[in-house]
Amino acid sequence: MSEQKVNLIGLSPSKLEAFFEELGEKRFRATQVLKWIHQQGASSFDEMTNISKALRERLAEVAEIREPEVVLEKISKDETRKWVIRMDGGSAIEMVLIPEGDRRTLCISSQVGCSLDCSFCSTGKQGFNRNLSTAEIVGQLRVAIRSFGPFDPSGDRRVSNIVLMGMGEPLMNFDAVVDALELFMEDNAYGLSKRRVTLSTAGVVPAIDKLSEVTDVSLAISLHAPNNELRDQLVPINRRYPIEQLMDSVKRYFSKLADRRVATIEYTLIAGINDQPEHARELVKLLKQVPCKLNLIPFNPFPNSDYKRPSEDAIQRFKMEMLKGKILTTVRRTRGDDVDAACGQLVGQVQDRTRRSQKYIDLQDATDA
Ligand code: SAH
User: Cβ distance 8 to 37 under 8 Å?
Assistant: First the structure.
């Protein structure tokens, strides 16, 4: 039965080597198969012509190459694409591709729903269902690459950047996400540069430290408030890991990198809540302590939320205040909102919300790990 077969899309290079060793095969098979799966987009073993027929048959018995299923694709007026993708067990997640000049940024999900319950995010309002497997995370990239025609990850129309900013908190699904990152950056797979793969987190501090031991992917931090009192309200995980601890972990992460990248700080601007000049001034003081750039995200409304997007004036005033404080600041243009593909509008279909209380267990896992 297919449940018992290993889905090879989700095996990192070292795990694929171990898989072949267990079969009594040479480790170099892993490189061949990695290329077939991730560079040629193979979905069956028959295609793998440099592998003997006997081994291909053996592989087909114990393993599979299975992609998640696209149930809906919408293309926005601004060419942003949104997919609804069905995962094992029937839950669905959403994925967004944002074209901008030469860039094609793919925004992928790491969980079905999210357990962190940030007050301004519609994914959080859906509750938490489950973590995605590595195969389901990497499968999203395969789906996007395929949408451009014949599978060609390195062609002109390639996905140039990946951001883990879709549904879910990637650091609450640590192991599966780290393996997916490895495949995104592995030369024998998708070969993306570490500057073009960004993990965004609401601030699971111990997991940020753990991350720095296993990867040097780019990091974005969802800050959204300049002080703990306000952040406790907007991003509840702040009650566990307050701003000072978060900033220290960000400093540690970037001090370990061999190159001179800086953190991206994300700040969703919500009218009357965190968009006042005094918030901007407090934010300048805070951000002076860490090498970073600031990305302001005007709040994207969704049903049953009382929050409002600030006026264009208020957004520009906030930005000017930050620039005056010498913080490099950009405003994220809203993309794809006509197809509900904008930040915080991804809801998917969370089948079983009763597992919401799981969040405490997961938090514990993240901190114990
Ligand atoms: N859990 C991760 C990644 C997912 S969210 C994280 O928190 O970073 C990606 C970004 O969109 C985050 O910065 C998030 O705070 C922001 N966001 C969520 N809801 C939003 C909304 N309604 N309007 C604007 N930005 C939102």
Answer: yes
- Evaluate whether 142 touches 9 at the Cβ level (below 8 Å): yes
**CB of 297 closer than 6 angstroms to any ligand 1 atom:** yes
Q: How many angstroms separate the CA atoms of 257 and 260, rounded?
A: 7
Nearest to 69 by CA among 102, 104, 93: 93
Residues 245 and 205: beta-carbon distance below 8 Å = yes
Question: Does 199 sit in the ligand 1 pocket, CB within 6 Å?
Answer: no
Q: Sort 256 into a burial class: Cβ within 10 Å, 0-12 / 13-18 / 19+.
A: exposed
Contacts of 61 (CB under 8 A, 6+ apart): none
pLDDT (tens digit, 9 = 90+) per residue, 262-304? 999 999 999 999 999 999 999 999 999 999 999 999 999 888 8
Structure tokens at 48: 């793998």
Is 143 strand, coil or helix?
helix
Give the residue from 240, 222, 237, 224 showing the smallest Cα distance to 279: 224
Ligand 1: atom nearest CA of 221 is 8
Distance 300 CA to ligand 1 centre (A): 10
| Nearest residue by C-alpha to atom 4 in ligand 1 | 165
**pTM, whole model, 2 decimals?**
0.92
Please give the domain boundaries of the chain with CATH numbers for all domains. 6-64 (1.10.150.530), 69-351 (3.20.20.70)
